[in-house]
């Protein structure tokens, strides 16, 4: 009798295919903030400031050289010119060391990060130890280049697995779960999560909290409390603003579900109350701990935005400037969406999917989690990165909702490799 692959096999195959595809871009994925997280991780393993600076600058400049060489090879005017890699890397190292060396000579050796930017800006990254701690074992064992790459692949692959687990908890068929995992990898979630930035962990931890919400609605209240509470606590270490936003949105979603059930003459449900309470505790804990630890305030973050990372004098009446900028930003954002409405269409399809049938209560929590992407973008109304990493959490709505929307179609056209009973018996626990 021929053995058919079970759910574990499909999960691992999809994650492995995604990981293999990432070999196409081992270097050159970094953003300007990546070097701050890497230098923090190197400091945690015991490297001195100059050693951490040398390794970080070497990695950044190697990526810059790799990108320059790839671009030239497809440039219709310069594709036959000599490889610019060495020249670009040398110029990059000279530029980076000029500022870093001056700051180190001036005595800027406090904290964990290498002083790539002004001290006020670097304090923002000193308050985010979660991602450097995650990077630490990878760069210690594999070195900087492959360690950073593998860390990104692992956290991105884990996000897809979490999507599979959430859909399994919702009792979706195997092909729907696999579709959700695949969507996570091919939509901007996968490309953003694999970058050496905090977004991969933010996505994974937000999905973990949503898994807890799904379990709560299915009656596994204790597991749900641990997952939601643990996710919010971990998010505080990665980026405490996301812990605040997610706690607020989950608390609001839980309250909406409870009120709706009350109006229909039903009990709110213990799981819904637990999630709402965990969200409230997350908000309160984030605010209190941020104050006790003297983390940069909202005003400081606003000045960072409006002064291009403190390169200019602080703005007076900063909040009034923000209100004006917000209006301009969202008008331009909507104009661009009308031009290329894929994102809005995906959000609408995802919302329809999570609003169907018995999963409607969970859909409210998914909508809440997706709203954290819009809150993050609203806190940083910079049109230069409007469609990239800041709003990426909103893509969780189509990732989870579109497979559920297409479930009736997929059920009629896709042959499931294992029968539902066997699927439940062999699913990951």
Could you walk me through the main structural features you see in this protein, from its secondary elements to its overall organization?
This protein has 20 helices and no strands. The protein is mainly α and 429 residues long. Helix 6 packs across helix 7 and helix 17 runs antiparallel to helix 18 (396-405). The protein starts with 6 loop residues before the first helix and ends with a helix.
Features:
disordered C terminus; 429 residues; 20 helices; mainly alpha
Blueprint (SSEs and pairs):
Layout: H1 7-21, H2 34-44, H3 49-73, H4 85-105, H5 119-126, H6 130-142, H7 144-169, H8 174-186, H9 188-193, H10 199-217, H11 221-238, H12 240-263, H13 270-292, H14 298-306, H15 318-339, H16 342-354, H17 360-379, H18 396-405, H19 407-413, H20 420-426
Mean pLDDT: 89
How many H/I helical runs? Answer: 20
Strand content: under 5%
**How much helix, percentage-wise, in residues?**
over 70%
Give a brief outline of the structure.
The chain has 429 residues and is mainly alpha-helical.
């Amino acid at each position: 009798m021929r053995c058919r692959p079970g759910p574990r096999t499909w999960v691992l195959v999809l994650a492995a295919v995604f990981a293999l595809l990432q070999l196409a871009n081992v270097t050159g994925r970094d953003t300007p903030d990546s070097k701050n997280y890497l230098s923090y991780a190197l400091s945690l393993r015991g490297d001195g400031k100059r050693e951490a600076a040398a390794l970080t600058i070497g990695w950044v400049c190697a990526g810059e050289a790799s990108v320059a060489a790839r671009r030239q090879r497809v440039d219709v005017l310069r594709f036959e010119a000599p490889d610019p890699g060495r020249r670009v890397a040398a110029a990059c190292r000279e530029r980076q060391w000029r500022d870093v060396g001056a700051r180190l000579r001036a005595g800027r050796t406090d904290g964990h990060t290498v002083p790539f930017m002004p001290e006020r800006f670097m304090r923002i990254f000193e308050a985010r130890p979660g991602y450097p701690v995650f990077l630490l074992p990878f760069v210690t064992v594999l070195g900087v280049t492959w360690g950073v790459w593998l860390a990104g692949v692992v956290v991105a692959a884990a996000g897809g697995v979490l999507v599979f687990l959430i859909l399994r908890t919702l009792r979706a068929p195997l092909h729907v779960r696999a579709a959700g995992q695949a969507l996570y990898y091919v939509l901007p979630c996968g490309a953003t999560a694999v970058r050496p930035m905090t977004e991969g962990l933010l996505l994974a931890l937000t999905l973990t909290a949503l898994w807890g919400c799904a379990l709560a609605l299915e009656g596994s209240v204790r597991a749900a409390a641990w997952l939601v509470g643990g996710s919010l606590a971990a998010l505080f270490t990665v980026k405490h603003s996301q812990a605040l936003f997610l706690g607020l949105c989950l608390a609001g979603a839980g309250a909406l579900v409870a009120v709706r059930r009350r109006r229909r003459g039903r009990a709110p449900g213990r799981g819904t109350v637990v999630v709402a309470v965990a969200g409230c505790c997350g908000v309160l804990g984030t605010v209190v701990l941020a104050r006790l630890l003297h983390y940069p305030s909202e005003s400081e973050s606003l000045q960072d935005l409006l002064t291009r990372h403190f390169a200019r004098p602080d703005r007076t009446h900063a909040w009034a400037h923000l209100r004006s900028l917000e209006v301009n930003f969202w008008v331009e954002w909507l104009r661009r969406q009308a031009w290329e409405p894929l994102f809005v269409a995906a959000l609408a399809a995802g919302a329809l999917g999570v609003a169907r049938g018995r999963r409607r209560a969970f859909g409210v929590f998914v909508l809440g989690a997706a709203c954290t992407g819009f809150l993050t973008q609203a806190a940083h109304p910079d049109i230069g990165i409007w469609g990239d990493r800041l709003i990426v959490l909103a893509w969780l709505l189509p990732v989870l909702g579109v497979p559920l929307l297409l479930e009736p179609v997929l059920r009629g056209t896709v042959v499931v490799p294992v029968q539902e009973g066997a699927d439940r018996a062999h699913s990951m626990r």
